[in-house]
Amino acid sequence: MNDVHYSERHFTFIKQSLEDLNHVLYNYNTSILCIKGDAILTFNKLSSLFNITAVYSHQETGIYSTYERDIQVGKFLKDKGIRWNESISNGVIRGISNRKTWKDQWIEYMNDDLQHPVFNNSMVVHKDSVSQLSNHFNTFSLTYKECANIQKGGTTTGLKYFNSFLKDRITGYNKNYSKPLTSRLHSSRLSPYIAWGNLSMRMVVQTAASKKNSIKDLRNLNSFLSRLRWQAHFIQKFEMEFQMQWRSLHPAYRNLGKKTDERLVKAWKTGQTGYPLVDAAMRCLIDTGFINFRLRAMLTSFFVFHLWQPWQNASPHLAQHFLDFEPGIHFPQLQMQAGVTGINIIRIYNPIKNSLDHDPNATFIKKWVPELKNLPIGFIHEPWKMTSMDEAFYEFKLGESYPKPIVDDKLSRKRASDILYGIKNSIASNLDSQKIIKKHTNPNRKVWNGDEGLNTSS
C-alpha cells in the first residue's frame, strides 16, 4: 500500500470489487473478511485461531515487494505444514528459462474448461462468525469516495462492459482504437477488470472466440483476441525479468547520462508542456484513469526522448493514474517505448503529427485543454505559430493563456535519435540483443486470432 506505483484510485477499485462480491455472498448469509496488515503476522494469527490445512490464491506477477512477500509467505506456510495452492490466472508460467513453447502452452491453458464450482451455504462461514473474527484483526474498510469519471470496480460492472463491447462497441474497433476520443467508446475497457481479477482471462478469451459467427467484421474480433494474448506475452516477459522494474533490459542503455530536470518533469506531470495533444492526454489520464495505447506510448516517448528524462522517473506517475496498472505490462511497455530493450524499434512519437493524424478536428484537445478551444483548429494543434496580430484578435497570449513549448520538438527528437541509434548500431549492442531475442521471442511465431475456438493459428 505504500509503494509509489499505487494510489487511492487503485484501492477504491479494489474496495468496489470486494463490495460487489459481498453483494453476491449476501444470498449465502456470509461476507468476505477484509484484513489490512502484514501477511506473515496475519497468517500467523489465523493459524492460532484455526487448524489450517490449505491456502488458496492466484499466482501473481507483481512488483518486487509482492514477490518478496510471497517468498516469505511460502516459507511460513511450509514451516507450518500448510499446503499452498496457487492457480495460474492468465496463462503466465513461472520458472521457465525461455519462451520457445510458451505460446502453445498459453493456448492449451485457454482451451481448458472453465471451472464452475458448486457453492452452497454449508461451505461458508456465517456472517456473524465473520463479524466475531474481525475483532482479532485490523480490518480494511470498504468505504470510498465516489468518482464519476473513473470506471467502477466489480465483476458485475466488468461483465456489463464486456457484454456491451461484444454486442455493439466492437463495431469500429480497429478504426477507432488509435483515436484519442473514439477509442474510449470502441475499445473494450476491460483492462482494469482483468488486471484486478474481476474477470477471468480464460472466460474472456473463450467467450470472445465463441462470437465468431455473430460478429459481422471478424477483423475487429481477431484484433481483440490477438491483444489478449499480447497481454499475457508482456506479463510473461516481466515474470522472467523482474529487474525490468528498475533496470533497462539491455545493458547498452543503462548509462545514458540522463539528468532529472524537475521543471520539465512537473510540466509533463501536470499537462503543461506546451504540446496540446501531450497535455490533453495527461489531463485526461489524471481525470479518468484511462487513455488508449497510442497516447500512453506518446506520453512515455515525449518524457524519455523529447525531455530526455530517465524512464524510471515516469513509472510511478503513470502507474498511479492508470486504473488498469498491471506491473507485467507496465514495465515492459515502458522500456519498449523508451527504446531500451535492444530488440524493439525505437519509436519517437511526433506529438504534432499524431495530433493532426488522430485528432484532426481537435475534438479531444478542446475537451481537455479548454484554454485552446476558441482558436482555429490549425492554431489549436500548433499555437506557437500564432502571430502577435493573431493573439490580439483571439485574445490569447502564448506563455500566459497556455504554456510555450518547454522543448524544441525537432532538436530534442534529433538528439534522442542520434544517441539511441548510435548505440543500437554498435556491435556490442547487437551481440547482447541476440541473447535477449533468444530468451523472449517465440520461434516461427504466427499471429493467433482465435479461429476454431482457440486451437489454431493463422
UniProtKB/TrEMBL annotation:
Regions crossing the membrane: none
Domain of life: Bacteria
Keywords: Chromophore, FAD, Flavoprotein
Cofactor note: Binds 1 FAD per subunit.
Binding site for FAD: Y173, S187, S188, R189, L190, S191, F224
One Pfam family named in its UniProt record: FAD_binding_7
Cofactor(s) this protein requires: (6R)-5,10-methylene-5,6,7,8-tetrahydrofolate; FAD
Gene3D superfamilies noted in UniProt: 1.25.40.80, DNA Cyclobutane Dipyrimidine Photolyase, subunit A, domain 3, HUPs
Domain Photolyase/cryptochrome alpha/beta stretches: 1-92
GO molecular function annotation: deoxyribodipyrimidine photo-lyase activity; DNA binding; FAD binding
Protein family per UniProt: Belongs to the DNA photolyase family.
Protein's name according to its UniProt entry: Cryptochrome
Organism whose genome encodes this protein: Nonlabens tegetincola
